[in-house]
Amino acid sequence: MNKKAFKSQASSQRAGGGFGGFGGAGFGSSRASTLSYIQEPPDYSGINDANVVVAFKNLSKKDGTTKAKALEDLQAHVSSPDVEIEEGLLEAWVRYDTWFSGT
Q1: pTM metric for this prediction
Q2: Tell me: the pLDDT tens digits for 35-63?
Q3: Which residue in 11, 23, 42, 64 is a FRET match for 50, CA 20 to 30 A apart?
């Protein structure tokens, strides 16, 4: 397919895409939107350990192995007998859970 045909195809799809070009998912749409509300991302400023912050950020990655490793790192951190669990860590966990689960 040449460039001209591709551009005309793409522009014709945008033109008939409904309200704002969102594929017909306008105000009267019966389809559920995946973006039902906007919420602030978790706040990591209350966590003093940089490794814990990195583990939390790795939980948002797409790769399952990275997520599993992040959960293992967090579990090891909170299971360590010489570590006191910070309130900031608990707040970030609750925020993370509600932010990524969509509830």
Answers
A1: 0.57
A2: 555 667 778 889 999 999 999 999 888 89
A3: 64
One-letter amino acid at 1 equals: M
Residue 82 lies in domain: 40-103
How far apart (Å, rounded) are the C-alpha atoms in residues 25 and 30? 8
- The H-or-E segment that residue 12 falls in is helix 3-15
Question: With contact defined as beta carbons under 8 Å apart, do 43 and 91 qualify?
Answer: yes
User: Contact 78/85 with Cβ under 8 angstroms?
Assistant: yes
The answer to the question of residue 97 being in a domain is yes
Number of other CB atoms surrounding residue 64 within 10 Å: 8
Does any domain span residue 98? yes
The domain tally of the chain equals: 1
